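Practice problem 4.
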């Protein structure tokens, strides 16, 4: 009997450790900073506004930059999925616009100081309109349907995990002369604020990546 108990204990110890997937939601003004940069108002800061915007209109570009505190995720974790959600609530016109998510390459930007020209007081972006990676992590096409849209930023969050914060740009894929801007609620808005939904594992192999979640679209005027 003792031998059988001992053998069972050995078998239990030899069983592989199954990774446990955990979810965390990053939201609110404590864990998110955001602002928009507007080409036609290149020296104006919009960090305290209740909206973010993206535009491909030639000569009047709008871009959004966001910072997320991801320090609550344990060191050494594997990011299996990270989705950035924004609520689209206003538009200049009904034309479709392709909006892409990029890693921001200037981490020192300041929410209440950044403009189209500078990332903080006295410090210019290397390129006016913000510095970000050429490659994008995801692309979403916005039309005239209001509601939640999401961008897959798994690769960006994974790369930024060690630093404890992640910086992301949202930009229009290409400049177009006839397409206006799309507007989202910022963290300063009372409800429907942006958030980051992350799934990660701390032991064993990374969890199988969840199926891509498509935009939740609520049609409206």
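Answer key:
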């Amino acid at each position: 009997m003792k031998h059988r108990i001992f053998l069972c204990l050995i078998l239990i110890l030899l069983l592989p450790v199954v990774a446990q997937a955990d979810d965390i939601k990053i939201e609110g003004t404590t864990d998110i900073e955001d602002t928009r940069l507007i080409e036609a108002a290149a020296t104006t800061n919009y960090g305290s506004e209740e909206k973010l915007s993206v535009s491909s209109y030639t000569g009047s570009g709008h871009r959004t930059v966001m910072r997320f505190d991801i320090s609550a995720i344990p060191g050494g974790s594997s990011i299996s999925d990270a989705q950035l959600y924004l609520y689209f609530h206003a538009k200049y016109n009904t034309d479709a616009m392709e909006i892409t998510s990029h890693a921001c390459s200037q981490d020192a930007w300041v929410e209440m100081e950044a403009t189209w020209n500078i990332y903080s007081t006295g410090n210019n972006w290397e390129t006016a309109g913000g510095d970000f990676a050429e490659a994008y992590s995801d692309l979403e096409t916005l039309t005239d349907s209001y509601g939640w849209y999401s961008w897959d930023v798994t690769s960006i969050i994974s790369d930024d995990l060690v630093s404890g914060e992640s910086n992301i740009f949202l930009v229009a894929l290409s400049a177009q002369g006839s397409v206006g801007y799309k507007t989202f609620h910022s963290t300063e808005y009372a409800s429907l604020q942006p958030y980051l939904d992350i799934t990660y594992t701390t032991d064993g192999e990374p969890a199988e990546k969840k199926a891509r979640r498509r935009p939740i679209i609520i049609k409206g005027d």
